[in-house]
């Protein structure tokens, strides 16, 4: 499928950061004169403590954990331990999972990721939970797709520095959806979005929420730290409120923006042709065999 003009569904994996992003990285503690030293410190900590056995310890891989925790080596190490513990506890989210088998989440417009960046250079992912039909798509597929997107996003140096933004669109949310939101599910959602992945979710914007969400949110509240609460923003149907944080030039028309929206499957199709991305995902346990046609 040809790319529409100005739309690029591809990752930027060049090591050298754009000047503006490099400046942000410096404010976060990234110092070119100390980078090698801090990477080696993290590598030594992995060997000495032995609390996890990462599948890689090369510089590029360790850097994303350091960036995710603003170059605090101890925090980066703790993040890595949580990441591998989460993987060990939830192998069904990635082990022998074919990303192309998750097309239904794009076909049903449950998840979309913008090919555009916001005014700060961050990726924007939209989750439209009201369109999810639990009887058709098991909740494990939502976790699989979310984890896949975060794994892929963490390959981009720019996203490692800037993090990403989530929009949770709750239009059409029903009690049937809420019944699937158990405390165990809530804990796994927070692990993916806040505590256990080497990619920061900088902001989460809740839109079109109603009384069903207010009820379901009671499950989350006890699990949220102060830092998590500071990243949550509630807008209802107030698009002007959302635009205070995300420029309309980076938003689809449904959120008062100026851009067309593209399905999650568009990204899957393009990334499946990127050999480096495919190799990275295979190292993590994903498979890339073509699906059989019905």
Automatic annotation (TrEMBL):
Coiled-coil intervals, chain numbering: none
UniProt GO MF annotations: phosphatidylinositol bisphosphate binding
Pfam families: CRAL_TRIO
Matching SUPFAM superfamilies: CRAL/TRIO domain, CRAL/TRIO N-terminal domain
CC terms in the record's Gene Ontology section: membrane
Signal peptide: none
Positions of transmembrane segments: none
Domain CRAL-TRIO: start-end pairs: 98-263
Classification via InterPro entries: CRAL-TRIO_dom (IPR001251), CRAL-TRIO_dom_sf (IPR036865), CRAL/TRIO_N_dom (IPR011074), CRAL/TRIO_N_dom_sf (IPR036273)
Lineage: superkingdom: Eukaryota
Name of this chain's protein: CRAL-TRIO domain-containing protein
């Amino acid at each position: 499928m040809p790319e529409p003009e100005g739309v690029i569904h591809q990752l930027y994996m060049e090591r050298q950061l754009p000047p503006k992003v490099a400046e942000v990285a410096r404010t976060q503690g990234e110092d070119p004169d100390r980078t090698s030293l801090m990477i080696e410190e993290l590598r030594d900590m992995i060997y000495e403590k032995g609390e996890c056995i990462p599948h890689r310890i090369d510089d590029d891989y360790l850097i994303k954990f350091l960036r995710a925790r603003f170059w605090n080596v101890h925090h980066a190490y703790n993040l890595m331990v949580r990441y591998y513990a989460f993987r060990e506890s939830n192998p069904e989210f990635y082990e022998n999972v074919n990303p192309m088998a998750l097309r239904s989440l794009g076909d049903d417009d449950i998840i979309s990721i913008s090919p555009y960046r916001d005014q700060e250079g961050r990726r924007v992912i939209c989750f439209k939970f009201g369109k999810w039909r639990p009887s058709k798509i098991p909740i494990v597929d939502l976790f699989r797709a979310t984890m896949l997107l975060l794994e892929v996003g963490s390959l981009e140096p720019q996203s490692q520095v800037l993090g990403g933004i989530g929009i949770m669109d709750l239009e059409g949310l029903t009690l049937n959806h809420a019944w699937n939101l158990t405390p165990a599910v809530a804990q796994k959602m927070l692990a993916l979005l806040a505590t256990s992945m080497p990619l920061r979710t900088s902001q989460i914007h809740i839109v079109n929420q109603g009384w069903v969400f207010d009820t379901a949110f009671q499950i989350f509240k006890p699990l949220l730290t102060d830092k998590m609460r500071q990243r949550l923003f509630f807008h209802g149907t107030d698009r002007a409120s959302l635009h205070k944080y995300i420029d309309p030039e980076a938003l689809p028309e449904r959120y008062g923006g100026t851009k067309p929206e593209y399905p999650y499957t568009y990204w899957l199709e393009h990334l499946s042709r990127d050999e480096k991305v495919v190799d990275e995902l295979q190292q993590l346990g994903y498979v890339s065999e073509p699906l059989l046609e019905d």
